[in-house]
Amino acid sequence: MAENNESMNANPPGILLIRSIRRKDWSLKTYKYVVLLITFIAYTSYHASRKPSSIVKSVLHPHPFLNETVTNPWPIGPLFVKREFLGSIDLGKSKKKGWEPFNGEDGTSKLGEIDVAFLACYSMGMYVAGHLGDSLDLRLFLATGMIGSGIFVGLFGMGYFWNRHAFWFYLVMQMVAGLFQATGWPSVVAVIGNWFGKRKRGLIMGIWNAHTSVGNISGSLMAAAVLEYGWGWSFIVPGAFIFLAGIMVYLLLPAYPEDVGFPCPNQPYVEDSSKTNDEEAQTVKENVAVNAHFNVPRVGSNRTSVGLCDACLIPGVIPFALCLFFSKLVAYTFLYWLPFYLSQTAIGGEYVSVKSAGNLSALFDVGGIVGGILAGHLSDKLDARATTAASFMYAAIPSMLLYRKYGGTSRLMNILLMMIAGLFVNGPYALITTAVSADLGTHSSLKGDSRALATVTAIIDGTGSMGAALGPLLTGFLSSKGWDAVFIMLVVGALSAGLLLSRLVLSELSEKFSKRLTCEQHNSEDSASQPLLRDQR
User: Fold this and answer.
1) Contact at 8 Å (CB) between 185 and 326?
2) Which residues, other chains included, contact 492 with Cβ-Cβ below 8 Å and sequence gap of 6+?
3) Is residue 535 over pLDDT 90?
């Protein structure tokens, strides 16, 4: 009876309601689709709520000699909207004066400090959030983080309506929002790891990881769409989005297969441990799990989560974490500063509006979607996560340099080179934060204990988030010296990320060569033994 009560408490209220209406439960495959969809929407809302600060930078700290033309957002309105020199237009209360305290000479530095405050709290909170995610109920933990994020992102925007000009107000709102946002990534990766085995994990998570770019795009469009009504709305609307998504997670997300009567794919339901990570074997077990519905205990429910030090000792965690430090430094510099860069740089001899810069920057994330899927597929095909990630980081170097040099020649060239840069920059970032983290979180040394999933993900992404904080901060200072200095920083970051995986790349390549050599030796031995067999006959 106690087990049934515990199961009822673990079941999401929305699932219980749907089950009572249908009078039967979903299949395992349906639950997997539901988990993919809900976690996709959840992290889309996380990234959408981070995007407004990059969109409103040019309103808070406007160019002193440029005028904005307000139009409908792309794709309803045009992608490119020309900016005119001089003149004025009403952009709410700012009236092209910017917004104190960001409209002074040190405005870009203060905007950089706001970004780094958010990301510093995000990265520090990540380590705590990962450990808590492995200890607490993931559904409740994730929902709480999303609702809290929505509240404080919205409060940042309320500073516009409350006419707040104190720097500390915006700093505190971003810092608290960063702490709540830290709950997201370890939780969603742990949920996916709980439901899916290692077969085709790179491709599945590569497609699923499109939520990062979809969130950036939707956040840009939402923030740009309401910008003309006052920059505060650009925060309130995405804040409301993640708030509502948090309620959806609470109502509908089954964080563990055991909560709805299915065995965990990372823990053998039967005693044959050889089938632990085989999803095909998991499908066969479905009928057994259905018959034993509500009686499957949650794996690891009576165990403590893996500690940070123990998780760091898992082979590959530290190299990938350091690689992600530089990879996210590059990716988040584009995330936070690309719209500002586009609004301050002539394209084909013309400047575009702030809104158009936000719209245009979304195409970087379109390339990122392709890059994440391609990196995941190649790493599955080659069975070489480190080699794939390093190759993409090296390829990102010439793509960024080409974008800097030729991106301003024409609109078409800008779009093309931006999407190529997005492909190579976001590809390894997506691969490491999804498939690699899930692989290491279910490493063989853990003996099937998936309670390390959130902790390992937090170590890797938390370290990466330190780089994500450093990149925008340095950009705030370097951009005042010229954008060439910023791109030099990005090239050094991409090169460092690739080099940090060198040992793992060599290990993967040597393993592949040794397997190939062994296979060739077996083939030659087989071919040599055939004449002997014929002679014996």
Assistant:
1) no
2) none
3) no
